[in-house]
Design brief:
With about 210 residues, the protein is of the alpha+beta class. The protein has 2 domains: about 130 residues, PAS domain (Beta-Lactamase); about 70 residues, Winged helix-like DNA-binding domain superfamily/Winged helix DNA-binding domain (Arc Repressor Mutant, subunit A, Orthogonal Bundle). It is about 45% helix and about 20% strand. The protein is built from 8 helices and 7 strands. Strands 2-1-7-6-5 form a 5-stranded antiparallel sheet, sandwiched between helices. Helix 5 crosses helix 7.
Length: about 210
């Protein structure tokens, strides 16, 4: 078997395993094109679209239930595709707070994807969406993160804020820490979790929470 064929089979096997894991996450995960066209949704994402509290599906495209925030969402999607690998993780993702009709809050994270369309098995998408219900964050998340990844209290606190949709600027201001300190903690989080981008980190954290909650 040629090296390229072996490599492709390994990639496809990894993707299948990743899809199986994402499908069982309690957090809605959706893959979309920059136009909002839906390419993939896990089970939680399908349920979220059916409830239409924050996200709705119109003509095959993911849109916001709150039409006043539609332009901001479209701008975030348009800015997501990027082939510039020199961009920091914080520049490859963006967040916005959503409100439903009853005043409940959720955080929508838009993370740029850098997948290779030439590899068989990869769904074509420009961004992954994470919809996080701010009212349903597990109270034991900090303990689980410390046990699973061996994080320090400061690293754990940063991880929790990231999962809640806070930007590095907001976290820095809230904790009265310098941007360099926050960036240093983020680099440590990447190293300990084996991730390279903020979206990957959040996905991994969410999966670890879901698994340990089962």
């Amino acid at each position: 078997m040629k090296y390229e064929e072996l490599r492709q089979r390994r990639v496809e096997s990894h993707i299948a395993s990743l899809n199986a894991l994402v499908d069982h996450l309690a957090t809605p995960v959706l893959l979309v094109e920059k136009t909002g066209l839906l390419r993939y949704s896990n089970l939680a994402g399908q349920e979220a679209l059916c409830r239409a509290e924050y996200l709705v599906l119109r003509d095959g495209c993911v849109q916001l239930h709150n039409m006043r925030q539609r332009r901001q969402f479209l701008n975030m999607l348009a800015a997501a595709p990027s082939n510039d690998s020199s961009l920091a993780a914080s520049q490859q993702s963006s967040t916005m707070r959503l409100l439903d009709g009853e005043g409940h809050t959720a955080v929508l994270i838009v993370q740029a994807l850098h997948w290779q369309a030439s590899i068989s098995g990869l769904r074509l998408a420009d961004a992954v969406l994470f919809l996080i219900d701010a009212d349903k964050t597990p109270p034991t998340i900090t303990t689980r993160l410390q046990i699973v990844f061996g994080l320090t209290p400061a690293e754990t606190r940063l991880a929790v804020y990231l999962v809640a949709g806070k930007s590095l600027v907001e976290i820095s201001a809230y904790l009265h820490l310098s941007r360099e300190t926050i960036k240093s903690q983020l680099r440590s989080l990447f190293e300990k979790t084996g991730t390279h981008r903020q979206g990957e980190l959040i996905a991994l954290i969410l999966s670890s929470i879901s698994i340990s909650s089962a």
